[in-house]
From TrEMBL:
Domain Aminotransferase class I/classII large positions: 34-386
Keywords: Aminotransferase, Pyridoxal phosphate, Transferase
Cofactor(s) named in the record: pyridoxal 5'-phosphate
Name of the molecule in the record: alanine transaminase
Enzyme class, spelled out: transferase
Length: 410
C-alpha cells in the first residue's frame, strides 16, 4: 500500500517539550526507572494544587456543563476577564472582545489561523515558547526569530527586531513574562516594541500566561495598557497562576484600535464558532479564580515555596563549573548556558539523551525553544527541595564526567 505521509505543513514544526527525549523517558519509566521530570511546567504533579474554591465551583456546576455555550464563552467568566483587563489598565475592552478557549494554546493557534496567508511573516522571540513558532508555520506563515539578549537579562534586541521586519511582516509576538528564560520586561522596552509596531503597522500578540508568577516584588505591565492606537491580542489563563493546567481554561482579549481589523475579527469569530465552544467545566472556574483569594502571591512571596525553589535551583545550577544562568524574575523556568569551551556540544538533543540515560533527569534542550546555538537547556524548578538537590547533584556528576571526556577539567 502507498505510505500515508504527514502534512508538509509539519516540516517546520517541533514541540520538543513533549518530543523524542520525553518519549525515551516514557519508555524508561515503563521499564521501571524513576525519572525526575524537569521538562514541563505541569504544576499538579509536583503538589501545586489549584485553589479549593475553584475545584468546588467546578463540582457544583458540573451538572450545568453538559451543553454547548456561546462560541466565545459564557457571559459571567467573560465579564470576569473584562474586569481583569480593567485591573491591568487595558482600556476599551468589551465582552465581545473576549474569547474563552481550551487553554491559551488553542486561542494562539486560532489567532494565527485567522491572520496569516502563505508567505506572511511573524516576528517570534528566540528563545520562544515553541507553540508560537509552530502556530505560525501551521497557519502558512513564516516565523522569523528575533534574538533576546542573554547579556541584557534576556530582553529582546530591538535593533535585531527592526532589521528583520520586511514588507511581509504582519505581527510581533511578545512573551512577557518569558518562557523559557524567566525574563520580565520593563515599561521602557515595551514602549520601544510598541513604537516599532506603530512605524510598521504591525499587530502585537502578547502572551502573558505567567503575569502573576513574579518574584522579589516585581510588577508586570501588560503591553496592551501602554497604547490604544494599535491592535493588541493578549493571552492568559488559569494554567499557571491558578495551577490548573488540566482544566484547559484560557482567554484571548482583542484591544486597542480595532476599526481597521473588522475583517480579521470576523475571522476570529468564524473560527470560534467552528470549534463550537471551549469546554464548559473549565469556564466555570474562571470567575471564581479571578475574583477569589490570589494564593499565587503566597507561593512567590517571601517564604513561598516557588520563591525558595527558584533560589535553590539557581544556586545548585550555577555551582556547576561552566554553567551560568540569568536568575529569573518570573515564571517557572531557568534557561542556563553551558560554556562551549568546557562543554563542546554539537547536538543538544543528543546531550539531553545522554543526560537522561545516565542520570534519569529529563530536561529540554535549548534548540527545542528555537535557540540559535546548542549551548542552553531549560529546567523547571517545581520539584520539592530534596528532589531538586538529588536531581541537580546527579546532573553535576554527569557534567563533571562530560568535561573529563572532552578534555576539560577544573
Amino acid at each position: 500500500m502507498r505510505p500515508i505521509q504527514k502534512s508538509n505543513k509539519l516540516a517546520e514544526v517541533c514541540y520538543e517539550i513533549r518530543g523524542p527525549v520525553p518519549e525515551k523517558a516514557r519508555q524508561m519509566e515503563e521499564e521501571g526507572h524513576k525519572i525526575t521530570k524537569l521538562n514541563i511546567g505541569n504544576l499538579a504533579v509536583f503538589g501545586f494544587d489549584p485553589p479549593d474554591e475553584i475545584v468546588q465551583d467546578m463540582k457544583i456546576n458540573l451538572s450545568n456543563a453538559a451543553g454547548y455555550t456561546d462560541s466565545k464563552g459564557m457571559f459571567a467568566p467573560r465579564k470576569a476577564v473584562m474586569h481583569y483587563t480593567q485591573g491591568k489598565n487595558i482600556a476599551g475592552v468589551s465582552i465581545d472582545d473576549i474569547y474563552l478557549g481550551n487553554g491559551a494554546s488553542e486561542l494562539i493557534v486560532m489567532s494565527m489561523n485567522a491572520l496569516l496567508n502563505n508567505g506572511d511573516e511573524v516576528l517570534v522571540p528566540a528563545p520562544d515558547y515553541p507553540l508560537w513558532t509552530a502556530a505560525v508555520s501551521l497557519s502558512g506563515g513564516t516565523p522569523v526569530h528575533y534574538v533576546c539578549d542573554e547579556q541584557q537579562e534576556w530582553y529582546p534586541d530591538i535593533e535585531d527586531m527592526r532589521r528583520k521586519i520586511t514588507p511581509n511582516t504582519r505581527a510581533i509576538v511578545v512573551i512577557n513574562p518569558n518562557n523559557p528564560t524567566g525574563a520580565l520586561y520593563p515599561v521602557e522596552l515595551l514602549l520601544q516594541i510598541i513604537e516599532l509596531a506603530r512605524q510598521h503597522d504591525l499587530i502585537i500578540y502578547a502572551d502573558e500566561i505567567y503575569d502573576k508568577v513574579l518574584y522579589d516584588g516585581a510588577e508586570h505591565v501588560s503591553i496592551a495598557s501602554l497604547a490604544d492606537d494599535l491592535l493588541f491580542v493578549t493571552f492568559n489563563g488559569l494554567s499557571k497562576n491558578y495551577r490548573a493546567c488540566g482544566y484547559r481554561s484560557g482567554w484571548m482579549v482583542v484591544s486597542g484600535e480595532k476599526s481597521h481589523a473588522k475583517d480579521y475579527i470576523e475571522g476570529l469569530n468564524m473560527l470560534a464558532s467552528m470549534r463550537l465552544c471551549a469546554n464548559a467545566p473549565g469556564q466555570f472556574a474562571i470567575q471564581t479564580a479571578l475574583g477569589g483569594y490570589q494564593s499565587i502571591d503566597d507561593l512567590v512571596g517571601p517564604g513561598g515555596r516557588l520563591l525558595k525553589q527558584r533560589d535553590l535551583a539557581y544556586k545548585l545550577l550555577t555551582e556547576i563549573p561552566g554553567v551560568t544562568c540569568v536568575k529569573p524574575k518570573a515564571a517557572l523556568y531557568m534557561f542556563p548556558r553551558l560554556d562551549p569551551k568546557i562543554y563542546p556540544i554539537a547536538d543538544d538533543q543528543q546531550f539531553a539523551y545522554e543526560l537522561l540515560a545516565e542520570t534519569k533527569v529529563l530536561i529540554v534542550q535549548g534548540s527545542g525553544f528555537n535557540w540559535i546555538a546548542p549551548d542552553h537547556f531549560r529546567v523547571v524548578f517545581l520539584p520539592n527541595s530534596d528532589d531538586m538537590v538529588e536531581a541537580f547533584g546527579r546532573m553535576a556528576k554527569f557534567m563533571e564526567s562530560y568535561r573529563k571526556r572532552h578534555g576539560a577539567s577544573f
